[in-house]
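Journal club prep, notes for RB
We'll compare a predicted complex against what the paper describes. Inputs for the cobalt (II) ion case:
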Amino acid sequence: MGIKTPDEIEKIRVACRICKKILLETSAILKEGMTTFEIAKFAESLMEKEGVKSAFYGYRGYPGSICVSINEEVVHGIPSPTKFIRTGDIVSLDVGVIKDGYIGDCAATCPVGTVDLEKQRLIDVTRDSLRMGLLSVFAGCKTGDLGWAIQQYVEKFGFNVVRDFAGHGVGRNLHESPDIPNFGYPGKGYQLKENMVIAVEPMVNMGRPDLRILSDGWTVVTADGLPSAHFEDTIVVRKNGCEVLTSIE
Ligand code: MF3
Ligand code: CO
């Protein structure tokens, strides 16, 4: 389940490199006063230039090409021409593309202008929790080892991981098995095998882990209104570690 051939991994690698490039180039244009719709339009123009399609548009009826989630929005923010980004905001950009039938999926949270220290710390801790998680991965490890690595890192800083959404296998489909939770216990969960491709995506709340879904049916927000950050990489599980496919190097 979820194990890919070398050929498939090469195709996912191509999708992932393009996906990361689009994420980086889009994050570079974030500026106070832009709407989340303009941000998505820019990402769409890059997708067209790169010859890829959005992996999100139409997925379970999702109406956007990317997700743009601001401050207390955790994930799945729908781009909107009436939603403006302002200095001091933190903005999660989540990009998924399809190239040659295979998917790449990645996300990052960026500060707009100057943000307060606690928000910057939230971004840093979330990014580093993803790194800690990835460092724990090798063929034979359990999803609980990975989840625990992320959770214990996050909680050391007084923040909370989101329980209600998880990472996932990646391939021809955006969401394949197994689920990759951002919490767990060492030695528990599902065993990861060599050549599985998974997306690891910690969502970290400054306050309580509880969530709400807005009336648009998609936008996930924190119940307490405090900010949340999100980072995601698509990786291949290798014998003694993992290889990050959504990396530009
Ligand atoms: N990276 C996110 C995920 O894997 C984005 C999905 S948005 C959706 O869940 F619209 F496609 F669901
Ligand atoms: Co994902």
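Talking point for the session: The chain is about 30% helix and 25% strand.
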